[in-house]
Amino acid sequence: MSKLTKNQKTVLAKYEPAKAYRLAEACGIVKDITFTKFDASVELAVKLGVDPRKANQMVRGVVTLPHGTGKVVRVLVLCTEDKQAEATAAGADYVGLDDYIEKIKGGWTDVDVIICTPSVMGKIGPIGRILGPRGLMPNPKTGTVTMDVASAVKEVKAGKIDFKVDKTGIVHAAIGKASFTAQDICDNANELLSAIIKLKPQALKGTYMQSVAICTTMSPSVKVDLKSIGSAE
Q1: Helix (H, G, I), strand (E, B), or coil: what is residue 96?
Q2: What is this structure's pTM?
């Protein structure tokens, strides 16, 4: 067995890996056990008892985190000229249409969110095979296909995130930074968990929320006691 590093010993002195902690306590612990020189992202992993292969058990939604993600979100708006000034004024990082579609065809995807108007979806369809695997394809369900591009840009910049269950039944989402206060991390976690609970599929039999863990980019995960999450069942 390899010898524990000083940081590993410090971590193990602060919490018990097998124990499930109340959400507020877990948010404090995850800050205490993060030893990085950069401001690590805080992530929530929620294991659901759904079968994502079945359309009536797919869990997907959007939520606006009260304290934002702490991340600078780079937004591209693809729209016709009459909407471009509105998008720029709202804070979009990149605004255009044909020029950016050509850049994407060439392999450029250096953005976090793409918003577009319904009228240009026909032009975006052919680049779906590039955008889809990167989670960048605009979608009316997540509010990224809209005529109100200004509101969409502002919401994304303020901390609106899109989440969905992966093929293993887990929702992974970044909910803040290690520099956030434990209370802010807890508020954001509660907001996301509440949104997931509301999306419980009617077709589901058995336990919906099976486990919840919180961690940072480089820290071990801390288990969360489901009883501290309201109606987790």
Answers
A1: strand
A2: 0.79
